[in-house]
Description:
By secondary structure, the chain is an alpha+beta fold. 56% of the residues lie in helices and 14% in strands. It contains 8 helices and 5 strands; from the N terminus they run αββαααβαββααα. The strands form 2 sheets. Strands 1-3-2 form a 3-stranded mixed sheet. Strands 4-5 form a two-stranded antiparallel sheet. The two termini are 33 Å apart. The relative contact order is 0.13.
Amino acid sequence: LLGAQAFVEGHRWAPAARVVLDAEGRGAWGPVNMFRTVGASGPLVTVLGRSTERIYATSFTDAAFSLLPNDTDLSVFRDAGMVGMDFANAAGVTHYHTPLDNVDRSDPRSLQHHGAYMLPMARALGDMDLRQIEGPRVVYFDVFGRWLIRYPAAAALPIAQVVLLMSLASVVSAVRRRSERLRDVTLGACGSLGLIVGVSVLAMAVWWAIRGAFPEIGGFTHGEPYRSGWILIGIVALSVGAFVAGAGALTRRFGLTGVVGGPLLVWAIGGGVAA
């Protein structure tokens, strides 16, 4: 972060700077995500949605990053009172902060994607009064990299409450129509939660077994070995198989309403807590 700190403390442009677009990389290739905003950045997210065509962004990563010990140059500019965005490609993490982290191994397509964000954003911001760039925070997410959906963060709780009420109404209606017991819905919810936790534990156990069989994997700085795609595919396939088998058993025991309605309520309540 030394370069960013030097800019803030000594560069003649620093006092006039209002917005920072930070191009990062946690790997050698892959698509670029806008993974963090700082400051009252609602209008800045709107500029992103209007000025770029291939957008990967979600406020979920924004919230998650705030809980991590990691940092980027953008933190320095945030502390200096600026607003901004972090962009990063994150595939090829095996090369990150190693002797393989060099220009020759970087993917030009990732560099092009960075440019596809930066140039239109810079042009759009250059045509604006940057004194009006700050505004309320927003919730946002992309749809297939083509559209950026966004709404005020203040609307998150009312939306979650509506979803919870609709979920409750759906479950009550299904229970009445099918004459199934509320007990089955409750047990189905518990069983589905247990299934999700169980599948997660299974995936972690398989990964730790692989690491036990191949101790050299533990030597990788970020825990990911080369050509890890096949390992990931295998773990995902095993997890999906275990989940489908478990869901089938729960359906036979508690009925479809119990297995679908229970998790529906669980997710709706979880969404309300998150909001």
